[in-house]
Amino acid sequence: MTNISISPIIEADQERLLDEALRVVKTESFEMKRCLDRGDRMEGLKHASQMIAELRTSALSPKFYYRLYIDVTNELQHLSSYLTDDYLSENKTTKVAELYELVQYAGNIIPRLYLLITVGVVYFKSHESPKMDILKDLVEMCRGVQHPLRGLFLRYYLLTSTKELLPDLPNNTDVGSGTMNDSIEFIMINFSEMNKLWVRMQHQGPSREREKREKERRELRILVGTNLVRLSQLEHLDIELYRKVVLPGVLEQSVSCKEPISQEYLMECVIQVFPDEFHLATLNEFLDSCAELSDGVHIKNVLGALIDRLAIYAVAEESPGIPADIQLFEVFSRHAERVIGSRSSMPPEDIIAIQTALINLAVKCYPDRTDFANTVFESTNNIFQTIKIEKIPFNNNVGRELLKLLRIPVDHYNDVIKLLELSEYAPVLSALGYRGRTQAASYIVQNMLDNDTAITDENHVEKVFKIIDALLIDQPDQPQELESSEDFQEEQNLVARLVNLVYNENLDQHFRLLNKIRKSFGNGGKLRLRYTLPPVIFSAYKLLLRFAHEKDLENWEAKVNKIFHFCMNTINALKSEADLNEIGLRFYLQGAIVADKIPFENSPTVSYEFISNAFSIYEEEISESREQVQALTLLIGTIQQMKHLPDESHDPLRNQCALCATKLLKKPDQARLVCLVAHLFWYSTIADSSESMKDGKRVAECLKKAIKIASQCMEDLVQINLYIHILNNYIHFFDQGCEQITYDIINQLVDKTKDSLLQLDPSPDLDLLNESFSGTLSHLRYLKSSNADSSRYDGIAI
Q1: Which helix (H) or strand (E) holds 592?
Q2: Which GO biological-process labels does this protein carry (predicted)?
């Protein structure tokens, strides 16, 4: 054997030592094969023993020892094949029993036992001795190696070598080769000894290397778990045998070792390798053992794995489902409460993880039993109160687990109305800090939007808003600079979209819903109102248009007036509390249009009131020049759309538009808006009139005023551009038949524009003006040539 000292060795030294050992293995295996090929069995066994002796090392870490083990056992396959061919052939001259006894005289115990197992497999196949006696002898002989690492790999070799030899026959079958009980006994003994060796590794070496040993042990756990895998592969293992023999043995070994890593792995291994039907039949026994595990075991992993597996089984298409006599949720809930109560030091995130597994079980296996899910949230809330946990940060382990818990019923139900049946949901959500509450609430709102979950009842509004109140009203723990937060803006946009989900076939009920939402939003403060009130107003306008088709309703007029009053107050709040004057102006104008479309008695009064309020905002609150132009353009366009205003109401509005146009700060804006007012005098429709008013006199006055304003502009380019714009308006109204617009005026303006253009120096801006003017003249020629009454155009000189 290579001389290797036992000491802490770095990775490079491990590679070097492994290479040295592998060179010996390669050399000895070559000699072994050469001896066996020439029939020298004894010399071959001698070289095999020297090759196996490399596994006596204690200097290699589990990872490197495993690589050495693989190479050695691969070479032993050659020896096994040779012995099988030699001793099991028809022409055999000696008995395997003699060789089985011979290899027991090997000098070192490691080579002795590896050879004994290799020869024992051949001995088993030879039928020279009772088979189970051979297996019992092998498993007992392996007790001679008590070094954890070497012993684990030796017993792993025993298990893998005998994998195909274990009898798998029912216990009532007597063929002399063993039964199922014999196989179980063999595997359980091997499993018990391997687990003891594995646990012993934790207590060897200095305490400062504890983490290193734990890591190495986790690397070796699959060696122990292979025993349980082999047990699960026994074809005739039934539920009764599993309940009475296998599970008690495994649980006894797991509980008695009192070592957290071993206990947790073995429990998880049982869950993974044995069938779901076995778990259902032994649920109470398994869960009772969980309560006896060490406090160091992450019990959340064990319970979570079992619950998730049975939940998947319960809903699988080919599954028969959970038997009616097994109250799965009650069993898990009772044991989870017992485990949590018995572990005072359990971290909060582990407690929540167990509750998360229970919620998964409740919503997947019992989707119609919302009381089960509510029970989980109630117990979670009680636990929080007991351990006095609150304001949980969203980005620590506890917060992440809690957010995961809260999202499960949202995702599974995909119906927030059903979620509202969980009365204990909101108290659990409130345990989060501000950011966590807003994230959870946003998730709920997004789910409602994705699934078009209609809010049809006032009770629904109240409960939903209670859950998402972190998005609706100021919170004591909210950050100072909310307005600049992108998250806040996204959250409020979600809340705004929530209004679109409000709907009820009953118009009165729909309005009551809007009223309730408006009151809730009203408590949101200035920062939130700018997002939440606009959709309420739009929704109210849509409701009014629905009312327009339901005139047979009782007190129809009063109800319509009430909704317009509601809209007026909401716009006032938007304007005064949220300082959104320009948006308020737009809503007033939209309200006027809606009122004009609904044929109720107060339609003209309401329309006029809305427009006059819009003018008030324009005159008192809007001072920036560009905003004034935009607002006045909207005012003119809205007034022009009115169809049911009497002249005594329409006339002051038209005149006010004309006055406001002449008071704009910039002359170009004045000229353009005065031209726009001209359209107002031509195309507006008065109540009880089916035709446009076509006030040619006022149109001519407006255009004349526009020319006067344009002539006052000092910049030539701006002035000419205005002339072209005014000329286009003159041509338009001339074509529309406005008698006050004559061809003399058009000719004068054309000549004036031509002269002005000729006086400018060449420039790109001049080219654009020439192009625009040419387009106007081309249009004039087209009108002249295509108009049926072309004689009207004879006086126009182009």
Answers
A1: helix 581-597
A2: intracellular protein transport; retrograde transport, endosome to Golgi
Complete DSSP assignment for 709-775: HHHT-S-HHHHHHHHHHHHHHHHHHHHTT-TTS-HHHHHHHHHHHHHHHHTSPP-HHHHHHHHHHHH
| SS3 track for 26-64 | HHHHHHHHHHHHCCCHHHHHHHHHHHHHHHHCCCCCHHH
> By three-state DSSP, how is residue 624 classified?
coil
In contact, 234 and 168? CB cutoff 8 Å? yes
**In contact, 266 and 195? CB cutoff 8 Å:** yes
* DSSP assignments along 324-353, one per residue: TT--HHHHHHHHHHHHHHH-TT--HHHHHH
* Helix/strand number for the chain, H first, E second: 37, 0
Distance CA 472, CA 465 (A): 8
| Distance from C-alpha of 369 to C-alpha of 638, rounded to nearest angstrom | 55
Structure tokens at 488: 């806040």
Provide the token pair at 379.
Answer: 């117990």
User: How far is residue 523's CA from residue 434's CA, in Å, rounded to a whole number?
Assistant: 18
pLDDT, one tens digit per residue, over 742-787 is 989 999 999 999 999 998 889 999 999 999 999 999 998 888 888 6
Amino acid in the structure at residue 730: Y
> Which pTM value belongs to this model?
0.82
| 56 burial via Cβ count (<10 Å: 0-12, 13-18, 19+) | middle
Q: CA 367 to CA 390: how far, in whole Å?
A: 29
Half-sphere exposure of 739 (CA within 13 A, CB side): 2
Tokens of 668: 């170009």
